[in-house]
C-alpha cells in the first residue's frame, strides 16, 4: 500500500495559522479530507500521515479529531511547546490517542539556529525515545549541524527530516547541504522525507530542477530510510498532486521494485508504526 507520509489539513477560521496569509492565494482557504480523498485515489495512495501546520496544541487536537473520523489517516504528527514547564505532561496526554505518532516543532521559524541543542529540551527528547514517539525535523540547511549534534545525544530517537531540509534549489548552491545531509545519513539513524522540494525550486519547479536533490537524498539515506510525502496543500503553490507523484515515479524508476515500494509506503509504515 502506498502512503503519503506528509500532508496537512486546515480551517482558516481557527486562527492559529499565522504564516498562512492571503498572499499565499493558492492555499488560503480551508482544506478538508474530502478535498484530498480523490487525489489519493487517483494516485493509488491508501493511507496518510497528517502533520501539524500551526504551533498550537489546539490544532493538534483538531487534527486528532479529524483522524478519528477518517479511516485513511493512519497517524498524526502534532505540536507541543517543548519549552513549556508542562511539556512532558502535554506530550503524555496526547500520546494516549491511538493515532498520535509524534511531534514537529517548527524549527525553521525559530530565530535561534541552535535552539534544538537547548539543555532544557533534554527531557523531552528522552521522553520521545522512552515512549517510542517520532520527531519530525522541520529544518533548513543551516540547522543540519545542530540537528546532527542533537541526534548524537539520542541515537535511538526516531527522527525524520522534513522536505529534505529545504535545499536551495532556486539558487542552485547545494554543496554545503549535500555534505551535511550525507553526514546525518552516515552518522545517525535519521530518516528523510522525499517531499516539499517543488516549493523550494523558485520559478522553475520542474523535475530537472529537483532531481539532483532527490537523487542525493536517496543515495545518502537509501530507500529504507526515505519516504514519500506530498506536503499537500502547500504543494499547490508550485504544482499539483498528480504532477508531484509523477515526478517521484520518474525519479524512482531506475530502482528495483523492492526499493520503490519502500519509498512509496513501507518505510513510512515502519517508521511511524502504522499497522
Note down, in words, how this protein is organized.
The chain has an eight-stranded parallel beta sheet with strand order 1-2-3-4-5-6-7-8. The N and C termini lie close together (12 Å). The protein has nine helices and eight strands. Helix 5 runs parallel beside helix 6 and helix 6 packs parallel to helix 7 (207-221). It has helices at residues 33-42, 57-68, 87-94, 122-130, 144-153, 175-187, 207-221, 241-252, 257-272; strands at 2-7, 45-51, 73-78, 100-103, 134-137, 158-161, 191-194, 226-228. The radius of gyration is 17 Å and the shape is globular. The model has no long low-confidence stretch (mean pLDDT 97). The chain is an alpha/beta fold and 275 residues long. It has one domain (2-272): Metal-dependent hydrolases (TIM Barrel, Alpha-Beta Barrel), CATH 3.20.20.140.
Annotate the secondary structure layout.
Blueprint: E1 2-7, H1 33-42, E2 45-51, H2 57-68, E3 73-78, H3 87-94, E4 100-103, H4 122-130, E5 134-137, H5 144-153, E6 158-161, H6 175-187, E7 191-194, H7 207-221, E8 226-228, H8 241-252, H9 257-272
Parallel strand pairs: 1-2, 2-3, 3-4, 4-5, 5-6, 6-7, 7-8
Provide key terms for this protein.
globular, 275 residues, alpha/beta, eight-stranded parallel β-sheet, 9 helices, TIM Barrel, 14% strand, 8 strands
Amino acid at each position: 500500500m502506498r502512503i503519503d507520509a506528509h500532508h496537512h489539513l486546515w480551517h482558516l477560521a481557527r486562527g492559529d495559522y499565522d504564516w498562512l496569509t492571503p498572499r499565499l492565494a493558492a492555499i488560503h482557504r480551508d482544506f478538508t479530507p474530502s478535498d484530498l480523498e480523490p487525489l489519493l485515489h487517483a494516485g493509488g495512495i491508501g493511507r496518510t500521515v497528517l502533520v501539524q501546520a500551526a504551533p498550537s496544541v489546539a490544532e493538534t487536537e483538531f487534527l486528532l479529531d479529524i483522524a478519528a473520523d477518517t479511516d485513511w489517516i493512519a497517524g498524526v504528527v502534532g505540536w507541543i511547546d517543548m519549552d513549556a514547564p508542562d511539556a512532558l505532561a502535554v506530550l503524555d496526554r496526547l500520546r494516549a490517542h491511538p493515532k498520535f505518532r509524534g511531534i514537529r516543532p517548527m524549527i525553521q521559524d525559530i530565530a535561534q539556529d541552535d535552539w534544538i541543542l537547548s539543555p532544557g529540551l533534554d527531557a523531552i527528547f528522552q521522553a520521545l525515545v522512552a515512549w517510542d514517539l517520532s520527531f519530525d525535523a522541520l529544518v533548513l540547511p543551516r540547522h543540519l549541524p545542530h540537528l546532527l549534534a542533537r541526534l548524537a545525544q539520542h541515537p535511538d530517537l526516531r527522527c525524520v527530516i522534513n522536505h529534505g531540509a529545504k535545499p536551495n534549489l532556486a539558487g542552485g548552491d547545494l554543496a554545503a547541504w549535500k555534505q551535511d545531509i550525507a553526514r546525518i545519513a552516515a552518522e545517525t539513524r535519521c530518516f528523510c522525507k522525499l517531499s516539499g522540494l517543488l516549493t523550494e525550486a523558485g520559478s522553475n519547479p520542474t523535475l530537472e530542477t529537483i532531481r539532483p536533490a532527490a537523487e542525493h537524498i536517496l543515495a545518502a539515506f537509501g530507500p529504507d530510510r526515505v519516504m514519500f510525502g506530498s506536503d499537500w496543500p502547500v504543494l499547490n503553490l508550485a504544482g499539483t498532486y498528480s504532477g508531484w507523484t509523477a515526478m517521484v515515479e520518474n525519479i524512482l524508476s531506475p530502482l528495483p521494485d523492492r526499493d520503490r515500494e519502500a519509498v512509496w509506503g513501507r518505510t513510512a509504515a515502519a517508521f511511524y508504526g502504522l499497522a
